[in-house]
Amino acid sequence: PTVKRTLELLHSEVNTRHTVDDLSAAVHLSGSHLNRLFRTNLGISIGSYIRALYIDRAKYFLRETNDSVTEIAEKMGFDTIHNFSMFFKNFTKMSPAEFRKLVHDKKKR
Q: What confidence tier does 1 reach under pLDDT thresholds 50, 70, 90?
């Protein structure tokens, strides 16, 4: 039930930058206990799950909207476009603009 509630929070509040501390407080557990529950039930740490969720959300916005990268960064709760771009590139090995161009080039084919 705790993992399910945490997942509901993560997926229902899609424009909120969640932290492990915020989520653990919301479900009344310590961060380390919540992380153990996540690893046991999902096979992944809560931090990794959150990062993957943000990357998926960013890819969706880049693929399906005409919003600028700056607008997407703001929508996702990043302080600066630089922080968003570094986060995105760290996990995808390409910048948000490169990803968008790649996706749009594939759609043209």
A: confident
Q: CA-CA distances (angstroms) from residue 4 to 16, 37, 42, 97?
A: 18, 10, 11, 34
d(CA 94, CA 100): 10
For residue 84, what are its two tokens? 């968003």
3-state helix, strand, coil in the chain (%, to 5): 75, 0, 25
- The reported pTM is 0.81
**Assigned token pair, 44:** 């992944």
Could you give the CA distance from residue 81 to residue 9 in angstroms, rounded to a whole number? 25
Closest CA to 17 of 65, 68, 87: 87
Give the pLDDT score at 14. 67
